[in-house]
Amino acid sequence: MEKRVLVLNLDHSPIAVVNVQKALVLVFLEKVSCLSHYETLVVRTVSKEFKYPAVIRLNEYKNIPYKGVLLNRSNLFRRDGNECQYCGSKKQLTIDHVIPKSKGGKTNWSNLVTACHRCNVLKGDKSPEQMGLKLNSIPFRPTLGFFLANYAERHAEEWMPFLDVKVVGVK
Questions:
Q1: Which has the higher per-residue pLDDT, 166 or 134?
Q2: Residue 129: pLDDT above 90?
Q3: How far is the CA of 67 from the CAs of 2, 36, 46, 112, in angstroms?
Q4: CATH topology of domain 69-142
Q5: Backbone dihedral angles phi then psi of residue 54, each to the nearest 5 degrees
Q6: Three-state DSSP class for 109?
Q7: Please, are residues 146 and 168 in contact by the beta-carbon 8 Å criterion?
Q8: Which DSSP symbol is given to 28?
């Protein structure tokens, strides 16, 4: 039971990812409707067999305050595909301010990128243009849907029709 289950609000916006046990409890309590199943997976009990849910939708709308994706090292690396945004290296990764802090650059999603140690030191306290460096992708603020779509591409193709996300800024 390693597959995860996508939880959608009544308006079909993604709000969570849960394990199959939690999803099945919500289905049996009639708090959710199952919109999609994993084709080849089933959950067996002593006397019954149940389809393995892939996507469930709440039966009542829940007002969930938007918190956004937390700006941290792990999420920044995930957004940038764990590679340097200047040369594509996957080794000795650091965080770089595109516009240096000393030049008024902010610490936010649109000014931070993943860079290898070599490119970060080479760039130093200058802009990428001044050093002849070009960004592989434009920095952007990711959404929960962006990360869910990246997960779904690798582990849960059944989620894709429910995730209205265009992968922006990634090669």
A1: 134
A2: yes
A3: 27, 27, 42, 19
A4: DNA Binding (I), subunit A (1.10.30)
A5: -110, -40
A6: coil
A7: yes
A8: H
